[in-house]
Write a structure and sequence with these properties.
Blueprint lengths: L1 E6 L3 H12 L3 E4 L2 E4 L3 H15 L8 E6 L5 E6 L13
Antiparallel strand pairs: 1-3, 1-4, 2-3, 4-5
Cofactor: Mg(2+)
InterPro entries: CRISPR_associated_Cas2, Virulence_VapD/CRISPR_Cas2
GO biological process, one term: defense response to virus
Length: about 90
C-alpha cells in the first residue's frame, strides 16, 4: 500500500493530479490518496510524477509518497525535498 499526500497551489494542476491519482486509488482525505496496487503501477506513478508533474510544480508545492511496508520508504517531490524530518507512522 502507498499513501500519496500533496499540497499543490495551482488549482488546475492540483485538480489534474487528483484526477490522475483517482485512477489508481481512492481519496481518504482532501489531498491524500491511498493506492493499494502492484509495484509496477506504483513505479509508473512515480515515473509520471517525476517526468510530467514535477516540472510544473512551484517552489511551494510538495508531494509525499509513503510506501507502507516494513521499510516505510518516504519519497519527496517539490518543496518537500527540502524537508528532512523523520516521520513516525503508527499502524
Amino acid at each position: 500500500m502507498v499513501i500519496v499526500s500533496y499540497d499543490i497551489s495551482n488549482d488546475k494542476l492540483r485538480t489534474s493530479f487528483a484526477k490522475y491519482l483517482s485512477r489508481f486509488g481512492h481519496r481518504i482525505q482532501y489531498s491524500v490518496f491511498e493506492i493499494d496496487n502492484s509495484k509496477r503501477i506504483v513505479d509508473n506513478i512515480v515515473n509520471d510524477l517525476t517526468n510530467t508533474f514535477e516540472k510544473r510544480f512551484s517552489q511551494s508545492d510538495s508531494v509525499y509518497i509513503f510506501k507502507m511496508s516494513s521499510s516505510c520508504e518516504v519519497l519527496r517531490y517539490g518543496y518537500a525535498k527540502n524537508e528532512e524530518n523523520d516521520f513516525f507512522i503508527i499502524t
